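Lecture notes, continued. The same structure-token format from the folding unit now serves as the input rather than the output. Read the line below as a description of shape only.
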């Protein structure tokens, strides 16, 4: 009888934990902190603008986020025979109970706020606040 109570209690707790995911697309449960999961060097796997695939516009973007709150964005643009490399450094932080990622760069034109849709060790999905872009990032 005692074993059944322990098993039932464990299942109840597990069901409760999986039903209240912080992010729209998960994960439901992680043993790593949000700061540990977001700290990585990321590249864009998929990008959407108003539901349309615009991944090719982002194929040379690399975003590095450190545990200390530092951020670095590197992008390479090609137009005909010309190649232009863009780089800016700054900081990142969470807002709104860690549901929003705020990027604050030296180049204010690169500053953005993103709603976090998914935050896993190997996936970061973001939706731009006040914009139309949704970005799906994977480790670089």
């Amino acid at each position: 009888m005692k074993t059944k109570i322990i098993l039932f209690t464990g299942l109840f707790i597990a069901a409760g934990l999986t039903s209240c995911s912080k992010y729209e697309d998960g994960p439901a449960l992680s043993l790593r902190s949000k700061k540990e999961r977001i700290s990585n060097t990321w590249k864009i796997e998929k990008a959407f603008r108003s539901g349309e695939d615009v991944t090719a516009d982002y194929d040379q973007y690399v975003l590095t986020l450190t545990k200390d709150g530092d951020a670095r964005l590197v992008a390479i643009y090609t137009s005909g025979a010309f190649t232009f490399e863009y780089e800016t450094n700054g900081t990142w932080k969470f807002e709104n109970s860690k549901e929003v990622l705020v990027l604050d760069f030296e180049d204010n034109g690169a500053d953005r706020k993103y709603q976090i849709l998914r935050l896993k060790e190997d996936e970061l999905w973001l939706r731009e606040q006040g914009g139309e872009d949704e970005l799906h990032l994977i480790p670089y």
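Point for the exam: The mean pLDDT is 85.
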